């Protein structure tokens, strides 16, 4: 079975499973299959709160309409039924989406794609407004850098064997700049370990993985301590992404009941739900 998690937001997962895209809430056992789009870094999942107990979701596909000295971006949106092309376009200087950064980041109503030159494309699926955040990378970033959501800010996590740095994006609407907010000692990696990766961050927890033994290490920023979450079998496919998943029991407009889904999706839901039961309500998937 081929299954990839493309996104995670407010208790929903964006999956590529059975050769189709799928949005699912594994806790409420509901889902919606979408028509196919399988370029993961160009897809973003956004979940908007309608009222205290109800949400809706939108999947956004960003694409290049033209590319010369400038690039013109377009956006397609799927809210559960079909893909519609937004009237909004964005034209800016040319730079590719940054392949080092795994997925777009959803924060405060907008999806954010990082580009190779450090600039960020921001798109709000509700208002369909797009903008380019012109900014350079902070100096001294290592090859192990992650673009992620922080506490009320976009974050770059950059690590070496001794220290892990957390940069927050300030003044996002004007005069944007990266500010070093925190640094911690890297308590699990030494110079004898060559292959290791910064996998996930959500403002509360940081996930590192060592390649040779597949051990997943988690740093709790509240308790200021490292713990071992588990290990990834060495036979697993090398192309993997990690997501810090927090469950939600909210009602989501556009999701169907579990009764009509296939065995593959039932299995994924069961794996996530079982992991949450073991770990007390929050999991890395």
TrEMBL record:
GO terms for molecular function: ubiquitin-protein transferase activity. Residues 7-162 form the F-box associated beta-propeller type domain. Keywords: Signal. GO terms for cellular component: ubiquitin ligase complex. Residues 1-24 form the signal peptide. InterPro entries: F-box-assoc_dom_typ1, Gal_Oxase/kelch_b-propeller, SCF_F-box_component. GO terms for biological process: regulation of DNA-templated transcription; SCF-dependent proteasomal ubiquitin-dependent protein catabolic process. This is F-box associated beta-propeller type 1 domain-containing protein. It comes from Brassica campestris.
